[in-house]
Amino acid sequence: MTTSAPTRFVALDVHRQYLVVGAVNASQQVVLSPRRFGFESFQDWAPAHLTPLDTVVLEATSNAWLLYDQLKPLVADVIVAHPQAVKLIAAARVKTDSRDTIKLASLLAANLIPAVWIPPQQVRELRALVAHRKRLVQQRTQAGNRLHAVLHRHNLVLPAGKPFAAHQREWWLSLDLPTSEKLRSQQDLSLHQALEELVKEVEAELGRLSTCDPWVKQVPFLVHLPGLGVLSAMRVLAAIGEIARFPSAKHLVGYAGLGASVHDSGETHRGGHITKEGRSDLRGIMVEAAWVAVEHHPHWKTQFERLSARIGKQKAIVAIARKLLVTIWHVLSHQQADSNVQIEAVTRKLLNWIAHTGATPGKKRDRLLLLYEQLDRLGLSGEVEQVDYYGSTYRLSTRQQLLRVAQQRKAT
Hints:
The structure is a single chain. The protein is α/β, with parallel strands linked by helices. The chain has 4 domains: 8-109, 2-Layer Sandwich (Nucleotidyltransferase, domain 5), CATH 3.30.420; 121-209; 219-334, no CATH class; 343-411, no CATH class. The protein is 54% helix and 13% strand. The protein is built from 16 helices and 9 strands. The chain has a 5-stranded mixed β-sheet with strand order 3-2-1-4-5, sandwiched between helices. Strand 1 and strand 2 (19-24) form a beta hairpin. Helix 5 (121-153) crosses helix 9, helix 10 (249-255) packs across helix 13 and helix 11 packs across helix 13 (313-334). The longest helix has 33 residues, at 121-153. The radius of gyration is 27 Å and the shape is globular.
């Protein structure tokens, strides 16, 4: 990659079936008239016509990352633009592909492109998997709601237990319903049970990824916080990507849309509701975690009660979610445990993670050794002597003893 100033500013107007390429120079004169390409023909054209002195811009679309990976080795830089922000800057009454392409190239030449962060491959894969799980859960919920509607329409009462568990299937099949409704309910039941298995498969894969780089070094710092388990930790990491791209906790709060809106103009100074701009999935996860934290953790419960007495429960839980997100920024950025940590709860959560994933892919290692390593990473190993886990008590010896046991097992 060259350090010289770019000579051309190339824009790609990407559509579902084709793209349009155009370019301007530093004086914003058109040096490459807009041309339309299919994706295969563009893949042949780009290496022959793009140079290391070109800078390329394209809007964030479903195939933006593929184009980014293809173009990055060929040019000085590739910028992925925020599509909504670009529309606000370049709104026009006359809109064509050629005009949009040149306008995008001109914004790039003027350094007015609102760029988005380019996630590395492992972040893209994690985000895709988390989004896939969300879709499966939504479909499972829809099937369950339709089955509950059947019960409501016919005043039926389910037997005790989970409504869609395997042992309830015979009860559902035995219902005396009209023929068409019976068929629909049977198919919804089968769909719900199939989706349940698919969700479990995805969650197992998320658990496996939590034991792999780069996530394995970050998961303990999230899991030790109240309200967050391994699954929710992976969802948070998927949304954040890399904590280093947020210079302060305030930036992360804004990214989640949990910061307060502000109107400050002239003599008017007014704060408002949260902006809700940014990643709605991260905002939702934090609110879910906040409800768990205020129920089970004394520190967060005290703060919630104090806030809810003044501003109401709904605003208070959003405030707790924001505070919890600030804590996440600090523990991930500084790689240190929260000062309000509950040691017993942390050790149980870590042991649960280790028991289900092994916390080291492909290796059979002592659970206590793995637990000690994670506690040591959190700086908490000196505060734990024993752990109560599902009715069993595990006593932690010194690190040297644990390492000696591990070495002996490896030798045998």
